[in-house]
UniProtKB/TrEMBL annotation:
Domain AB hydrolase-1: 22-253
Keywords: Hydrolase, Oxidoreductase, Peroxidase
TM spans (from-to): none
Keyword Hydrolase: yes
Organism name: Paractinoplanes durhamensis
Entry protein name: Hydrolase
Record GO terms (molecular function): hydrolase activity
Source organism, top-level taxon: Bacteria
Matches recorded under InterPro entries: AB_hydrolase, AB_hydrolase_1, AB_hydrolase_fold, Epox_hydrolase-like
Pfam families (alphabetical): Abhydrolase_1
Length: 269
């Protein structure tokens, strides 16, 4: 994976295909390669040039002590500029979707259109409680057994349909026991990404085409929250993927890819 310097921060990225550019933005703690199992092959086959990357805070990209939302936005913008992608299509999930929305506001010159998956304009009471709980664990220096963490991650991020299938559930549990980025080398970053800020007033100022994708069984970023984001952004469209949790783009890739490619390929009105 090549490395690019963006404002003094080294980011590891991958650049595949040719055609109109698409930048994919992963969620909190996820590597760029999370898109490579399903979305990248489909987008490349559809005639797009697709760029993925590990955000700052996710090794092997640089891992400063603290990462802010402004950092994430600046890194994405710098990557678009240095790779000559802009104005490009962008798509993000979870925190990546929030970065995509902020790019629409702060650097509309770099964005052609945006897909926002598993997103929200302000955190729910449950998400706020989860964030506080995770911070409390971190500050206490508590390390939970990998088996327990895997079970919790599965319950929070997957749909009941996936969990009811023993084979699929076990596959996911095995994956979730793999250490998270930064845990092996101890170089993890603390994310201060303004997740608690209400961005609905700002979203009314987005003037670019946006497509919001909600996942029906998402506990982290509820489908209702996605509908609220779509209602706040002028002209935004919304679709909801059934039998999908927070990782819906991995649980229901065919439905997600079909909706994604349709929006990214259609002519602007």
């Amino acid at each position: 994976m090549p490395v690019i310097d963006v404002g003094g921060v080294r980011l590891h990225y991958e650049d595949r295909g040719s055609g109109p550019g698409v930048l994919l933005l992963a969620g909190t703690g996820a590597r760029g390669r999370t898109w490579h199992l399903y979305q990248v092959p489909a987008l490349v086959a559809a005639g797009f040039r697709v760029v993925t990357f590990d955000t700052r805070g996710i090794a092997p990209s640089d891992t400063p002590p603290v990462v802010t939302m402004s950092d994430l936005i600046a890194d994405a913008a710098g990557l678009i500029e240095q790779l000559g992608l802009g104005p490009c299509r962008i798509a993000g999930s979870s925190m990546g979707a929030r970065v995509a929305a902020e790019l629409c506001l702060r650097r509309p010159d770099l964005v052609d259109r945006a897909v926002l998956m598993a997103t929200f304009g302000r955190p729910s009471a449950f998400l706020d409680a989860m964030s506080r709980a995770e911070r409390a664990l971190e500050e206490a220096g508590t390390k939970l057994p990998e088996e327990y963490r895997a079970a919790v991650r599965a319950a929070l991020n997957l749909s009941p349909r996936t969990l009811s299938d023993d084979r699929k559930a076990q596959d996911w549990l095995d994956i979730f026991q793999i250490p998270l980025p930064g845990e092996v080398d101890g170089a993890s970053s603390r994310l201060e990404a303004d997740a608690g800020v209400n961005r609905f007033p700002a979203y009314t100022e987005i003037a670019l085409p946006c497509f919001v994708v909600g996942f029906a069984d998402d506990l982290i970023a509820s489908a209702r929250g996605g509908r609220e984001v779509a209602a706040a952004i002028p002209g935004a469209r919304y679709t909801e993927i059934p039998d999908a949790g927070h990782y819906g783009y991995l649980e229901q890739p065919e439905l997600v890819n079909a909706a994604l490619i349709e929006f990214l390929t259609e002519e602007k009105s």
